[in-house]
Amino acid sequence: MLDLSAMLQPGLSAEVKKTVDLDDTAGTSSPYLNQYLSTSACAALAVSASMAATEGRLPEGYLSVGRRLDLEHDAPAMIGTTVIVKATLREVRGNRLLFDVLGSDALGVIFKGVNERVVVNRIGLEERGTERAQQLKALREKL
Predict the structure, then answer these.
(1) Are 12 and 88 within 8 A, CB to CB?
(2) In angstroms, rounded to a whole number, what is the distance separating the alpha carbons of residues 134 and 143?
(3) Residue 46 has pLDDT above 90, yes or no
(4) Rounded CA gap, 11 and 125, in Å?
């Protein structure tokens, strides 16, 4: 089994910076929200920061995939606002990584949360995905 604690220690962190633009809003869901950072964009930024923290630190053929994301979106951020998102590794549990994520602008916290990721072998992931797709295809053919 892969020993991640030898490669990744709590406290490891990474930041991503993003200036909110139209693609980051919920404007397609509601015309009243077309100028504000959407919760789904916050989630994407949280995942990006967490992935950046392990970039280049996992062995060849391994990657992290999302398992759980718990997010609290506390303050609005409008188009043009620069948001900095920091993910900090809190804990390594076997092949699971728990990141504390904080998104803020110059005035303070916009969102915070926890992103749990699982480190997997890329080939094994592809095999499991292909097997599941074949099972679904066989089920559709029966119906």
Answers:
(1) yes
(2) 15
(3) yes
(4) 28
